[in-house]
């Protein structure tokens, strides 16, 4: 049984926030049921229940960073899903960050679609006006079959609605897609439906990561018993290629492969402009014998 720890102790963040000031706001995850995720379930030797930190504690952290001269850095409001917290609380924290820390180029946090849908358009506008620039949301897949199997707790239509709400409020949106999440059986559906949802939302950014199965997650046992199969590097790159190829003409998102789990690092500042280059580059990998023979590794720490 993993030791339980307080909400400011497991602080995860996207790779792009590696050099940001990390201020824990919520601990744990208000959902905590995704079958591929073990972040708060003891994967790192400790577990954490969902909790919203007190305003007083969060402000103390911000004061501490201000006193230590952490000005000019991006700020990441940490925790599984800060948007699950009450709007007034979030507005107060973001305003406090903006007052206490000078020249903050970006304030961001993770978001979960259902938490976003619980907020009105006015509430999201208030959060944006306080100074939240961007949220990172796990779309994972646009396939309802895969979202249901993986117990994501939301479906493609809710993702589309939440994504549009965020963008309409003036907050930038970065979506994550997990390559290989449907294994071989649902790979085609994963490609088509993910491309469909991305086309509907046209997020500011979308980012790929590759499924790796962590010990202690429900998916681990299924993988160990041979019931769930990981895609090969070649198959993952092919999924990414086909998602890009299936996007609608309207999609102008930035695209990144900025996760240690990925088999390629290519990016685009506008996929509408770079689509051909992106596909050609991925095709060159797909046709490369070295990639074709690359063995699959399963990373258990990221
Ligand atoms: S919503 Fe995010 S943090 Fe929570 S269980 Fe799912 S993947 Fe993990």
Give a quick rundown of the structure:
By secondary structure, the protein is an alpha/beta fold. 39% of the residues lie in helices and 15% in strands. It starts with a strand and ends in a 10-residue tail after the last helix.
Structure description:
The protein is α/β, with parallel strands linked by helices. The chain folds into two domains: 1-132, Transcription Regulator spoIIAA (2-Layer Sandwich); 135-295, Transcription Regulator spoIIAA. The protein is built from eleven helices and eleven strands. Helix 2 packs parallel to helix 4. The site of iron/sulfur cluster has 10 residues, from loops.
List the helices and strands and how they pair.
Elements: E1 3-4, E2 21-24, E3 26-27, E4 46-47, E5 51-52, H1 55-67, E6 75-78, H2 87-100, E7 107-111, H3 113-117, H4 121-130, E8 134-140, H5 144-149, H6 156-168, E9 172-179, H7 187-201, E10 205-210, H8 218-224, H9 233-246, E11 254-256, H10 271-286, H11 289-292
Parallel strand pairs: 1-4, 2-6, 6-7, 7-8, 8-9, 9-10, 10-11
Antiparallel strand pairs: 3-5
Structural domain tally: 2
Number of strands: 11
Poorly predicted runs: none
Share of helix among residues? 25-40%
Which molecules are bound in this entry?
Answer: iron/sulfur cluster
Main traits of this protein?
about 300 residues, alpha/beta, Transcription Regulator spoIIAA, 2 domains, seven-stranded parallel beta sheet, globular, binds iron/sulfur cluster
């Amino acid at each position: 049984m993993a030791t339980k720890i307080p909400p400011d102790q497991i602080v995860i963040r996207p790779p792009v926030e590696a050099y940001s000031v990390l201020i824990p706001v919520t601990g744990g995850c208000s959902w905590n049921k995704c079958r591929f995720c073990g972040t708060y379930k003891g994967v790192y030797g400790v577990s954490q229940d969902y909790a919203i930190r007190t305003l007083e504690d969060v402000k103390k952290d911000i004061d501490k960073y201000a006193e230590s001269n952490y000005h000019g850095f991006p700020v990441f409001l940490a925790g599984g899903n800060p948007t699950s917290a009450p709007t007034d609380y979030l507005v107060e924290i973001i305003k406090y960050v903006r007052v206490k820390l000078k020249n903050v180029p970006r304030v961001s946090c993770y978001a979960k679609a259902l938490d976003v849908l619980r907020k009105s358009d006015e509430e999201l506008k208030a959060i944006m006006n306080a100074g939240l620039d961007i949220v990172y949301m796990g779309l994972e897949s646009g396939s309802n079959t895969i979202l249901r199997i993986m117990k994501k707790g939301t479906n493609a239509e809710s993702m589309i609605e939440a994504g549009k709400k965020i963008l309409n409020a003036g907050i930038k949106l970065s979506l994550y897609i997990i390559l290989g999440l449907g294994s071989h059986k649902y790979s085609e559906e994963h490609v088509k439906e993910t491309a469909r949802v991305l086309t509907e939302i046209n997020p500011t950014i979308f980012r790929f990561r590759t499924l790796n199965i962590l010990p202690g997650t429900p998916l681990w046992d299924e993988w160990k018993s041979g019931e769930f199969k990981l895609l090969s590097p070649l198959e993952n790159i092919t999924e990414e290629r086909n998602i890009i190829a299936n996007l609608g003409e309207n999609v102008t998102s930035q695209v990144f492969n900025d996760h240690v789990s990925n088999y390629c690092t290519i990016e685009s500042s506008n996929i509408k402009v770079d689509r051909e280059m992106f596909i050609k580059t991925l095709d060159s990998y797909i046709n490369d014998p070295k990639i074709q023979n690359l063995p699959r590794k399963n990373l258990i720490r990221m």
